[in-house]
Amino acid sequence: MALVQQIGGRLLQLVFVLWAVATILFLMFRLMPGNPLAAYIDVTFTEEQQLALMAKFGLDRPLWEQYFIYLWNLLHGELGDSFFYRQPVFDRLMVLLPNTLILAFGSLIIAYAFGIIAGSYLAWKRGSVGEQVAIPLVLTTRAMPEFWLGMVLLAVFSFWLGWFPAGGMRSPGAEFDSVGALYTSRDFLAHLVLPIATLAIYSQGLPLLLMRSNMLDVMREDFVTMARIKGLSSFTVVVRHAARNALLPVMTSFAIGVGYQIQGNVVVETVFSWPGIGRELVNAVAASDYPLAQGAFLLIAVVFVLMNFIADMLYGLLDPRVSHA
Amino acid sequence: MPDATLSTPHRFGAIGRLIRGLHLPLNDPFAIAGIAIYTVFILVAIFADQLAPYDPTEILYTADYDLAADRRPGEDGFILGTTSLGRDIFSQLVYGSRAALLIGITAAFMVALIGTIVGLLAGYFGGWVDLVLMRLADIAFGIPFLPFVIVIAAFLDPSIWNVVLAMALVLWRDTGRVIRSQVLTLRTRAYVQAARVCGSSDLKIVFRHIAPNILPLSFLYGSIAIGWAILTEASISFLGFGDPETISWGYMLQDAFASAALSQGAYYWFVPPGLCIILVVVAGFFISRGYEEILFPRLKE
User: Fold this and answer.
1) Distance (Å) from the alpha carbon of B238 to chain A's nearest alpha carbon
2) Of B7, B115, B135, B152, which has the fewest CB atoms closer than 10 Å, so is most exposed?
3) Which of A16, A147, A297 minimises the CB distance to B235?
4) Kind and range of the H or E element at B119?
């Protein structure tokens, strides 16, 4: 029962936060300088289009009514039409979302695989010279501006060595029969390498440091000492006994990592001209395409909040000692 | 004699007391390295006018009236070369430290200030004050940080203060939560109870008896926020939403990127600003690590 109550309480909080973020977004886009109608209607729309949008978003009504219409529309995935693309924002974002998710998950899987192994190794070799060099080095990767790392990789591997394409998701003129064929093509994968490498190098620090400190905690526990006394090799103790137990909190941080990547990807997608949600947000804001900017922001926020929620839930489920009270 | 011990702190003056109250981590080599890096950048920022050979925005010409564009390092006496517009890269780098420190320190100060006040009020008063403030923190945790700063920076006038404001509006959340939990334990301590019994007002207890004890914690979160603020400003400037009047490292990177410095292999243009950002941010990490070991000694084992 307690668990159901906990999850219920956390769900309520999730709904509350989503509502609050949507409200802040509404206020941000309505109270900005200029015509409030500009949030949905571009002057170049035809009169019929303008009237249809006026009706759909109640733009001729008072602000509070507009607010309820806005919330109602959001619940139905109705985000208005993009000024630039002349198509529903929702459809446009759904085309871009997979591209962003591929980057986020691809880079995080690599970052976590590396971080977990390297973190356990550093915990095992605690106090060695290698460790003393490695930790500041890892902190340095956390201190890099992600887009700068992307620029350096581009300059070296794309412009100088010519190994990888300089941006975008596919070569100009490359046609594919289906989305599936695109995502498995050699051309796409070549475009994927540098952005994924950038994000992975930046992201490996968190799992690495987390894994290392968890390992140091676990290695002090009785069952590890027991395994040692049994005469098991140091490698077996580290991998079979300590690492397994240190892994759980690192895995739950993966969900938080996805959330952070989705919002932080904005700059890296821009450097590599990667057609994802983040770059769309930047372009839409720069071009005053308000419905698209608002929709992209909202989608990023929803993924971000959901991932934090999932991480919280996982943490409680995987480690019953943690209570949400 | 008790009078003498009571009056010792006053001899150091308010600033001396503050510095000692911060518990600067002076026994940790990394923290000292961090403080040294900061000192160098602060000196560079203060003496930027003396150190920079040119105005960072000035378009430079050679002796025979050619535009001094895309000069390599050392060529025509330009230490780090020039940009495609003929501006001196080294001078921009020097002045960039001003923008970085200004943004980093003001943002960190605001984050620490808001977070500390929220934490103090929520932790000490509890009840509905706590409820409201912590729900606000939940909301701040739900806002995707970088997109939020981008939208604010783009909608308001492009100025560094709007970027600082946007960052402060979101980043106080971590400081606020941590300080609240610290205050929750402090308020049950005997000396706080004693002050209450003696009839001290709530405000006096909070600011006189509790606040000094959480100062190092505020400083720790402030030192982390400096790095975040500098990185965020760099991203915002890189995306083109920065202050066009201010030469920052992010602006330099944007300029280099937009001027195809990457394809020309102009490493002298886009590598130094990145390295400066890394140095300043890493210095913040080192200092905060030293702090953590003082505040949470268990980590040291």
Assistant:
1) 8
2) B7
3) A147
4) helix B89-125
Test A286 with B138 for CB contact under 8 angstroms: no
Contact A139 B286 (CB under 8 A): yes
Residue A146 with chain B: CB contacts under 8 Å: 235
Q: Which H, E and C letters describe A201-235, residue by residue?
A: HHHCHHHHHHHHHHHHHHCCCHHHHHHHHCCCCHH
Separation CA B35–CA B205 (nearest Å): 33
What domains lie within chain B, and their CATH numbers?
A: 4-47+91-245+275-300 (1.10.3720)
Give the tokens for residue A208.
Answer: 């690495």
Residues of chain A with pLDDT under 70: 1, 31-43, 56-59, 170-184, 318-325
Q: What pLDDT, in 10s, does the model give residues B18-60?
A: 666 666 666 777 888 888 888 888 888 888 777 767 777 766 6
3-state helix, strand, coil in chain A (%, to 5): 75, 0, 25
Residue B45 and residue B59 in contact, taking contact as beta carbons nearer than 8 Å: no
Token pair, residue B251, equals: 């602006």
Could you tell me the two tokens for A225? 């000492």
User: Residue A67: CB partners within 8 Å, gap ≥ 6?
Assistant: A23, A26
Which regions of chain A carry the CATH code 1.10.3720.10? Answer: 94-169+195-318
Q: In angstroms, rounded to a whole number, what is the distance separating the alpha carbons of residues B230 and B227? A: 5
Cα distances (Å, whole numbers) of residue A200 to A108, A211, A277, A303: 6, 16, 19, 20
Partnered with residue B142 across adjacent β-strands are none
Q: How many CA atoms lie within 13 A of A37 on its CB side?
A: 13
N- to C-terminal Cα separation, chain A: 13
B163-186 tens-digit pLDDT: 888 888 888 888 888 888 888 888
Cα–Cα–Cα angle for B148, B153, B157, rounded to 5 degrees: 150
Q: Give the model's confidence band at B301: pLDDT under 50 very low, under 70 low, under 90 confident, else very high.
A: very low
Handedness of CA A250, A251, A252, A254 (dihedral sign): positive
Instruction: Please name the residue that has the structure tokens 């400081």.
Output: B175
ipTM value > 0.90? no
Residue with the two structure tokens 């066009």:
B244
Cβ contacts of residue A116 below 8 Å, gap of 6+? A207, A208, A211, A243, A247, A250
Name the fold adopted by A94-169+195-318: MetI-like fold (1.10.3720)
**Residues B271, A152 contacting (CB under 8 angstroms):** yes
